[in-house]
């Protein structure tokens, strides 16, 4: 590989377009060469914003193209298995947006496929692991000064969701999945059980959609994680996390003050305060930048860093249990294979995460 990574982006929705901009404008040692989306008109519109980027409708063609050295998948989860396998088949590093796939079995097939290949090529897009506040929290908790971590309390709110197709299950699979990864990351353990509770829904949700939801995770070591996910909160993007340990607690994700002013001329009022970001692209802009830069740098070194295919599989397994719990209201045990023998379904036991 050269000293500049030639990148292709598959999927030109909100995240695909954001990643394309990022690769072109804010990522060192990377060059965007192609974008692909079944909606070719949209793909062309995106490519047209940059010099020398071609657009097509066929993701598999982009993945196989000789001028593409590495691929960002920002396509919907139901096509990820085929597209990730296509990347592995041609030995190209892939940054796959979450969810890795739609169910545990397909995610497990990817774990096995990468294992068969004998080297890491897959990074999963859990960008919060690159967010400076989450990484700081992780190092405080693993530093040990506060003792064992006992609880996490997460809040995850979106102002609204893009369309009426965003059903209750998607709140688990597309939104809560971030908290699943955060819990695994911060505790360094697997989630062994999940219960999803269904409060009375907001009138802003589409008919039949359960929003907000409250989910409780039990960690392998007995710790508990509470999560509020509310995707039609009407206000903005709020993601907070409080960790409670034996000798103190730590909160991240509170609005920063930004501006302090005693002048009536500033914003019309003598006051100070912060603002709530409109969506995840703003709140996690730095995390996404660091995530993509780390992916590019590691690909150029011939390595892979960040959330692995196992992390993607483990999160999918928790989401599957979460969707079952959403339907029944019961606490559901997470069905996870033995990490060291991924295809041996006889040994489906929860394990300590070893990342
Ligand atoms: C979206 O796909 C994301 O990943 C966002 O981070 C999350 O807040 C949102 O709820 C999801 O739909």
A few lines on this structure:
With 355 residues, this protein is of the alpha/beta class. It has helices at 14-26, 40-47, 59-64, 80-89, 104-117, 132-143, 168-187, 280-283, 285-301, 309-328; strands spanning 5-10, 30-36, 54-56, 70-73, 94-96, 122-124, 149-157, 191-197, 213-219, 224-230, 238-245, 248-252, 259-260, 272-273, 332-333.
- Going by helix content, strand content and strand pairing, the class is alpha/beta
* Helical proportion, percent range: 25-40%
How much beta, percentage-wise?
15-25%
Number of helices: 10
CATH architecture of the largest domain: 2-Layer Sandwich
Relevant CATH superfamily of the largest domain: Dihydrodipicolinate Reductase, domain 2
Report the principal-axis shape: globular
How far apart, in Å, are the first and last alpha carbons? 27 Å
Oligomer: single chain
The profile of the biggest β sheet is: 7 strands, mixed
Strand order of the largest sheet: 12-11-7-10-9-8-15
Give the tally of structural domains.
2
CATH class of the largest domain: Alpha Beta
- Low-confidence spans: pLDDT under 50, at least 5 residues? 349-355
Determine the mean pLDDT.
93
Give the number of DSSP strands. Answer: 15
Q: For the CA atoms, what is the radius of gyration? A: 21 Å
Distinct ligands: (2R,3S,4s,5R,6S)-2,3,4,5,6-pentahydroxycyclohexanone
Classify the fold: give the CATH topology of the largest domain. Dihydrodipicolinate Reductase, domain 2
- The string of secondary-structure elements, in order, is EHEHEHEHEHEHEHEEEEEEEHHHE
